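RECORD CONTENTS
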Amino acid sequence: MSDEATAETDEHRSLQGCEPRDTPGPAARVRNWWHDRGSGAAYDRLDGRLSAYCAEFGALLDELDRLEASRGGDEPAVDRDFVTHVETLLDKSARHLQHGHIDQAWVCFHAARRVDLYGYEAYDRLRDGESELVRERAVEIHRQATDRLTGWRREAVSDLLLDRSGQVRRDPSVHAVIRARYLVDEANQNNHAKRRYLQRQLRYLLGLGIVALTVFLFGVTQVNPFAASDVTLPTFVLYVPLVGALGAALFGVRSASKTATSTNVPQNFTPLGVVLARVFIGSLSAVALYFGLTAGVIDVVDGGTLTPALLLLVAFAAGYSERLAPQAVERVSGITGRTTPN
């Protein structure tokens, strides 16, 4: 290999965005943890992926250098503009990672993996058809789409990559493969956004539930509501919305893993906003039932005495059965989803 090619290879080994990153200190770890809402392993996972990818991409560039050198000639046989774009995306990914913006870092990393397909296309061209790296990537992408995608995205990937016989095209266009890869990445990012949305809801619900339970237990040690002689006293009434909020938080935790949400929900509602709405409606329902029972509008004991324990149980049940907030969120998201792309 010529000295020029060797120098060029050494340059590739220090790709922009692949420079060694300083290990985050305690302050940076706390900041990253906060930005990523408590996912402490997210930084290490992406940092490892970036490091491995940089080595793989550098090896691809080294192989392109070797093939070009074996052909001879003064003019480069491969346009290296794609390398600049990959470096820019890797640099952005590394910067987002250092600032704790894990989601943005993943988006840039996936974009870099799509652009590097131009490098695989160049490799196939230099090998004069002896390799089919682009087609191999197309086969991999199609299998991922078949396994993970549904609806129009799955059909679009098939239209881009398959021939009329239903097999992956022998010589697929690199632009079609990039577009198919984008559709798969977009679907994965949407699914990840939905999972993160529900995970954040769960954290907020657990936090509010712990706070409500702590306040309730502390209140019991000060003024025992179960021993109240008059259920209309303010010292007892204050427990009603508190117990309703506790019921709403418990039901929210139980149902969070079973909640189906569209990709429009994270765009239109914050997890904290939904959680506060659930807790507020649960508390309001508990108060409404309390007034209905004490006013005699609702009778659950057939004319018997309303005990403090019964009223608190009804308040908890009112909060626990709260479903209005999540249903309203999905309904509004469905309306806005008609004009918001998935």
Remarks:
- Confidence is low (pLDDT under 50) at residues 1-13, 335-342.
- DSSP finds 15 helices and no strands in the chain.
- The two ends are 49 Å apart (CA to CA).
- Residues 3-190 form one domain.
